[in-house]
Fold these 2 entries.
Entry 1:
Amino acid sequence: MREFNAVVLGAGGVGKSALTVRFVRDVFVENYDPTIEEEYRRNIEVDGQLYSLEVLDTAGAEQFTALNEVYMKSGRGFILVFSLTQEASLREVDNLRQQIYRVKGGNTDVPIVVVGTKMDLVNEREVQRNTIQDLATRWALPFYETSAKRNWHVNEVFEDLVRQMRDRYPAD
Ligand code: GDP
Ligand code: MG
């Protein structure tokens, strides 16, 4: 079975842990400790093939620190998370995206998925679909709107990333 790793990055409170734990444990955690950084592993089937995926849920408090750079160096795929209810968190995604490319030595051929969370909080929504659609087009990155609470489109995110990693990294 081929193995890949994914690093989940984004501002604090956007729902990185909720998304990760929904994917690996299929439950919604309401109050996950924001300081906890944890590595999970789950098998995932993509196009009839089983993959082992390691997911690193970062604590989100160390933007632009050496630690982030370490994760970016060792990460093969990245999930850049913002909250649809918090416009400012989208700018953090842009920063992280650029930082990844810098850390990868200017290489933009890096598997990345952009994820907007908390899709269920319709009344608190600040980021409109066309805004993120335009940005994702400009960045040439796939993007998904999700809800970890309702389990909307969570698996698609990870499947997309595995597909990108499968195509980007030839079997070693
Ligand atoms: P992190 O700091 O990025 O890891 O964010 P968390 O995963 O800890 O989530 C921060 C807060 O947002 C928590 O109170 C979660 O319950 C809430 N949250 C996360 N995802 C969702 C979601 O999909 N829907 C709703 N309604 N709340 C969410
Ligand atoms: Mg967290």
Entry 2:
Amino acid sequence: ANEINRAQAGDRPLNKVKHIIAVASCKGGVGKSTVAVNLAFTLTKLGGKVGIMDADIYGPSLPILVQPENKIVQYKDGRIIPLEYENVKLMSFGYINPESAIMRGPMIANMMNQLLTETDWGSLDYLVIDMPPGTGDIQLTICQTVSLDAAVIVTTPQQLSFQDVIKGIQMFGKVSVPCVALVENMAYFEPNDIPDKRYYLFGHGKSQKIANDYGIPFVESFPLDPDLCRWSDNGIPAVLALSESKISQLYQSLASAV
Ligand code: ADP
């Protein structure tokens, strides 16, 4: 009775969305939302119609990372109209209720389901879901509500983040969602004034080994990039602001892996 079933393609509430991609991490603060946002905007740059669902109700990041001019959510025919920035559709609990959520798990899962399925996403090539960190009820509810096509796992090199990566990979394995990419974020720093120098500030992670062990086809280290952080803090995705940069190229290779 406890068997976990992946939602079947037939009962997908988001039937005009071609691909649903989860971006997940096991710990908070590793850059999961940053990766979700920049991946989504890269997919748009490559010609896709894209939406981002911020599924982190306790700590929504999308309202800070992407700041459209119109921040007022409207409703039409009982559906929620997503906000929009540079053609990307956006939904977050933080847009609806900027107060912090103090709710128990089952209420959160319900609310998140509603947000996900009652938002009028229209036809999309990709919906990127910024998952809440961890591998608990809420994450499983999402897997059971929508038919995820792929998962991208984000970690930092530190052992504290890495030790749980396998839990995340195994969670997606249980619900038959393939992990297609492993991003080791903030892995190194390249100073502008010393060419070809890389500092691995937190040591080397184990992403390559984990990717080999679990058959994850794309594994990449992303730098700690103060420019990316600055643009993020200003509500503008770095891949739009710094479109010719190295970080944008890394996001393009990630986009081709999903
Ligand atoms: P999470 O979703 O895992 O909690 P966030 O995406 O919110 O993490 O990122 C946490 C903070 O780290 C943010 O301030 C973000 O701008 C910053 N950050 C994320 N990735 C990088 C990076 N590669 N370089 C510099 N800062 C980063």
